[in-house]
Amino acid sequence: MGMIIDGKAISQAVKDEVRAEVAELETKFGRKPCLCVIIVGENPASQVYVRNKVKAAEYTGMGSRLIALPAEVSEEELLAQIAALNEDAGVDGILVQLPLPKHIDEEKVIDAISPAKDVDGFHASNVAGLWLGKDCIVPCTPAGIMRLIDSTGVDLCGKTAVVVGRSNIVGKPVAKLLLDRNATMTIAHSRTADLGAVTRQADVLVVAVGKAGLVTGDMVKPGAVVIDVGMNRDSAGRLCGDVDFTSCADVAGWITPVPGGVGPMTIAMLMKNTIRCYLQRIQ
Length: 283
Ligand code: GUN
Description:
By secondary structure, this protein is α/β, with parallel strands linked by helices. It has 2 domains: 30-114, 3-Layer(aba) Sandwich (Rossmann fold); 140-263, NAD(P)-binding Rossmann-like Domain (Rossmann fold, 3-Layer(aba) Sandwich). It has 10 helices and 11 strands. The strands form 3 sheets. Strands 1-11-8-7-5-6 form a 6-stranded parallel β-sheet, with helices on both faces. It has a 3-stranded parallel β-sheet with strand order 3-2-4, with helices on both faces. α1 packs parallel to α10 (262-282) and α6 (140-151) packs across α7 (171-180). The chain is globular, with a radius of gyration of 19 Å. The N and C termini lie far apart (48 Å). It binds guanine (GUN).
């Protein structure tokens, strides 16, 4: 059986690192970093994520603000709130939880956030920076995935890496980060003809599709590092990933569980990104 990558423990270590940094920064600059999280509507999953983000910020000792807007809020009003936060010298990071209600243009909202406060790394200028190889804010989940892979000690140089999923939030950016480490990259997706034939080549397999049990043990290369980004609910309402853990754990060298794998890392890296924005703004 493969080794389990303990995202909970690794994220705790990152949050403790941030906690020590926050204390130092407050002493040095006389002000704590501050993260502002905006949620629109009452999507239950989003409410849990947002609560956990604010809780993590509180744990690290940084300041946090939560702005909860009703589902009916107009795009104009949301953009006005963001404009005010962009101007607010006391706010270092702005995060608008996705997805947004259908009447609001997500792209417009993301691009309204000042790139300097874009702790998600979703703004077009940060995305461009990532793809051009500039030192810029990296999206939280991909950054967390790289930390998890690094915890295994596997050297990515020259390895075959397969990412299943091509979202702007996970698939595309994590593919670029793996490429930056000199892995040979393939992005597979819902239209990939023979998914198993592709995933079986992977020394490192990242699955971010949102389909429970999509990847089974017969689709995994023996000894591979398997990272499961899925957050699905099974018929009993339990959280489960895109990877069938039981069959894949038998074949993989390392594997992340759900829950307790990638999820907590996203939040820990958000804390790191907030510090980064703070430092860029204060210096
Ligand atoms: N919804 C799902 N993942 C994310 C994320 O990383 N950031 C934001 N803002 N919304 C999300």
